[in-house]
TrEMBL record:
Residues 20-39 are annotated as: Disordered. Belongs to the BolA/IbaG family. It comes from Stenotrophomonas mori. Signal peptide: none annotated. This is BolA family transcriptional regulator. InterPro entries: BolA (IPR002634), BolA-like_sf (IPR036065). Pfam families: BolA (PF01722).
Length: 91
């Protein structure tokens, strides 16, 4: 299973998103000091009811919690766009 697939699976299990886009952005960071250790750069767009009533910090913490040990072993940088369904449909 690829890193993107593992990220998707972890987020699906923890946050039951209505929409989830995971992009491996590692190719844009070749040679970056953080990329040398083999960990990747990823962008995540996640839309979930779990974020209703939560601020951005709490949403990001929920995503990081779902990633668990992957933040130490597989992910160097994670760009997160976490929205509620209402925010996603608002454009």
């Amino acid at each position: 299973m690829s890193r993107v697939e593992r990220i998707r699976a972890a987020l699906q299990a923890a946050l039951a998103p209505q929409r989830l886009d995971v992009e491996d952005d590692g190719h844009r960071h070749a040679g970056h000091p953080g990329a040398r250790d083999g960990r990747g750069h990823f962008n995540v767009l996640i839309v979930s009811e779990a974020f209703v009533g939560k601020g951005q910090l709490a949403r990001h913490r929920a995503v990081y919690a779902a990633m668990g040990g992957m933040m130490e072993s597989d992910i160097h940088a994670l760009s997160i766009d976490a929205r509620t369904p209402a925010e996603d449909s608002a454009g």
